[in-house]
Amino acid sequence: MSKRLEDFKKEFQHSIAESMKFCNAARAREFQVEAMQRLEELKTRASALKADIVAAKDENSANLLLSVENMLRAVISELKMWVAFKDDDPSAAWTDLVGAQSAASTAMQVHKIAANLDAYIDRLHALEHLLFPPQLFFSSAIIIKRSTCSICGHEYGDCDHVKGKAYMGQMCKRIINESVLSEISVVPNPANKHCRTISVNDGKVTRDFMTWRLIDEQVTKNSDVDNFKKVLISNTNE
């Protein structure tokens, strides 16, 4: 490992430890925002360093930095969650929490530098159940007609790349180019936690499922449609 990478790794570990001090409800909003900004700057530098390492064809170090990017993304997302709660936006807070969970899981999957994240991931799952009401999830089943590999651009399955595996600092994804929606189901444990109920109607009034506030029914219908479209789009990258 080069001295430049070793120095960055030490800075990263220190910055994460300092930022975690603000990952709770009691810390002031302004300090949480400042911590987010510092980590965003560090993530930008991690990406720049990764580009240099990729150019030198050091795959292990490139994947290490991909893991670092995702660990930074996880803590940034958690900080955003706390800020969103203070801004009275629990729906945004949910999106940020799910982003933190996803980024932390990816970091562990990519490189052994994140091998000790089990406790952090367990903490995020505990926050999911402590901070939010039980969610009603749904899942979409699709028939894939055409898909490509995010690494090489060839038809997925015709190359040697495997989705969910890191190659030279990039996570392989199966990009679905053409598909048909076959069904939508209500499920307790979805693959995508963004796939959730936005509103409920008891025949008299419509309420925001997260806050339980009364909302305009037409706005709700548009929001549900927009959310479903976003979920389908996000599901095109497996």
Topology diagram in text:
Layout: H1 3-19, H2 29-55, H3 59-86, H4 90-110, H5 118-131, E1 137-149, E2 166-167, E3 170-171, E4 174-187, E5 199-201, E6 206-208, H6 217-234
Antiparallel strand pairs: 1-4, 2-3, 5-6
Give a description of the structure.
The protein has 238 residues and is an alpha+beta fold. Helix content is 53%, strand content 16%. It is built from 6 helices and 6 strands. The protein has a two-stranded antiparallel ribbon with strand order 1-4. The radius of gyration is 20 Å and the shape is flat.
Characteristics:
238 residues; alpha+beta; two-stranded antiparallel ribbon; 6 helices
Order of strands in the sheet with most strands: 1-4
Number of strand segments: 6
Large-scale geometry: flat
User: Could you tell me the mean pLDDT?
Assistant: 91
- Unreliable stretches (pLDDT < 50, length at least 5) are 228-237
Number of helices: 6
User: Mind describing the biggest β-sheet?
Assistant: 2 strands, antiparallel
Percent of residues in beta strands? 15-25%
From the alpha-carbon coordinates, what is the Rg to the nearest angstrom?
20 Å
Helix-residue proportion? 40-55%
Distance between the termini: 32 Å
Structural class: alpha+beta
**Order of helical and strand elements:** HHHHHEEEEEEH
Task: Give a nutshell description of this structure.
The protein is α+β, with helices and mostly antiparallel strands and 238 residues long.
